[in-house]
Amino acid sequence: MHLAYLQQMLDTDLSAERRNFLKTAGATVLVGGLAPSLAFAADAPAKASGKGFKGQGRMNMTSGEDWIDTFFNGGASEIIHYYADDFVFEDATLFQTISNKDELYRAFLPFNNNGPDSPVGVHQFDIVRYDGGAAKGSKGVARKGIPEGYEASIWAEQSRDTLAGVDLEYDEWAVMQWIWKAKHNADDFLGLKGAKGKTTYARGITFHCYRNRKIVREFTHWNFRAVGVQLGALEAPQLFWKK
Q1: CB under 8 Å, gap of 24 or more: what pairs does 229-235 form?
Q2: Rounded to 5 degrees, what angle do the CA atoms 65, 69, 73 make?
């Protein structure tokens, strides 16, 4: 969801933000030539709180609420530690797949500025439903072979992001369904005009795979069409099956 605003970061000087983050991440020395992503290896140790990602026992609704709350109130420097060193993050609606912590941190940064006058507007995510369970020693299972009717290159292109991280082992899973409330301060939202001053709502769903209480695989889908309808850019679907 938040990756819609990644483009806004291209012209942003992240040097000060980056330095502050590296301090909180525990990276005290930067060696010339070291890849930025390596600085994330020294994740801050989790403190057991009894709930959420830093707690103990089974993950549950409080884990989902912790994830959302930390994203907005803790910012990029805090939420980045909820992800394992080896992970894949995917927002399928926006064709975004990330497996590098430095890139993920940059993707989360725009929402650090989420005040009333923020260029990206004011955003609120609320989890409505949580489903999850234990899955010790689990991995994804990839389809073998190419379905009939596909060219090999097309199948590879269309399945690549879905299969990213298929070999990452996880011990627990969760599906969280949420509502995204967005008050827009800019006229343009993902190419849809007339958004400024309006508030839109969209349902979304995030599937998480966890290992040792950290995210190793994330799939997110959200209803872009619903936002388009609310902004008058798209027509509402016809419920033709209803009398």
Answers
A1: 230/198, 230/200, 230/201, 231/189, 231/192, 231/193, 231/194, 231/195, 231/198, 231/200, 232/194, 233/192, 233/193, 233/194
A2: 175
150 inside domain: no
DSSP state of 186: S
For residue 20 the two structure tokens come to 């502050």
Element (H, E) at 172: strand 170-183
Residue 155 lies in a domain: no
Residue 151 CB partners (closer than 8 Å, separation 6+): none
Q: Could you tell me the pTM of the whole model?
A: 0.80
Per-run averaged pLDDT (10 residues), the chain, 243 residues = 43 40 32 37 44 88 92 90 97 93 91 79 92 96 96 97 97 97 93 94 98 97 96 93 90
**Domain span at 205:** 2-44+60-140+163-230
